Amino acid sequence: MSGQSKVVCVTGASGYIASWLVELLLQRGYTVKATVRDPNDPKKTEHLLALEGAKERLHLFKANLLEEGSFDSVVDGCDGVFHTASPVVMIVDDPQAQLIDPALKGTMNVLRSCAKVPSVKRVVVTSSMASVAFNGKPLAPDVLVDESWFSDPVFCEKSKLWYMLSKTLAEEAAWKFAKENGIDMVTINPGWVIGPLLQPTLNLSVEEVLKLLKGDTFPNKTHRWVDVRDVAMAHIQAYELPTARGRYCLVGSILHCSETMKILHKLYPALNLPKK
């Protein structure tokens, strides 16, 4: 499907996944209205403005997740909306202010703006496996986790899994609002996203790989890895394919840290990597 003559909005466009999404959308001929917190911050915008097609078809807008109506003018006239904006941090002093409010209120503000615009055919929301797999059930090798799973907010709160709680509350509220207001919505629920960076700053998931490279030992845990380019393309497929419905869990490989280290050692044999 070609994006020629189609206009879409990408919220949080300077982010890791969103930057790749913007690049792929421009490659397909879309005109992209991209929101960022500060259009005058070169760290947030230079890499986007340098993309092929950006000069002709990329338009930057300032928008605030916590400000109702902030997305009204951006969404107006769009055929589709990709809502990727949400804070990704694991250690916080004030979970409500730093994670839950931006995730929940931000998602609702974007959807309220979409509900006002008849031109919007579909909304694709970037959710996470964080809103899928954290419900207290044991994740044994024989347990199949799929799109029917939802993380349990009570379990997340008791366990102080604040990021997981923020994504769960935001997605649950999004589905409720979409159904009540007739919004055609699809969610993308990726695992731990890795791959090349377009933006000049490190994000949380790539920092995790850096920790593995720099550590004396590696933790006894597994990761649900997925390539950022696959995640970005999945967003586009979720928008373009008429048959796309519901939630899509994206995981490329589930690897224990020991397996991940073997791959990293093979790719970068000169590095002194931890062996245990």
Automatic annotation (TrEMBL):
<protein>
    <recommendedName>
        <fullName>NAD-dependent epimerase/dehydratase domain-containing protein</fullName>
    </recommendedName>
</protein>
<dbReference type="InterPro" id="IPR036291">
    <property type="entry name" value="NAD(P)-bd_dom_sf"/>
</dbReference>
<dbReference type="Pfam" id="PF01370">
    <property type="entry name" value="Epimerase"/>
</dbReference>
<keyword id="KW-0560">Oxidoreductase</keyword>
<dbReference type="GO" id="GO:0016616">
    <property type="term" value="F:oxidoreductase activity, acting on the CH-OH group of donors, NAD or NADP as acceptor"/>
</dbReference>
<feature type="domain" description="NAD-dependent epimerase/dehydratase">
    <location>
        <begin position="8"/>
        <end position="242"/>
    </location>
</feature>
<dbReference type="InterPro" id="IPR050425">
    <property type="entry name" value="NAD(P)_dehydrat-like"/>
</dbReference>
<dbReference type="InterPro" id="IPR001509">
    <property type="entry name" value="Epimerase_deHydtase"/>
</dbReference>
<keyword id="KW-0521">NADP</keyword>
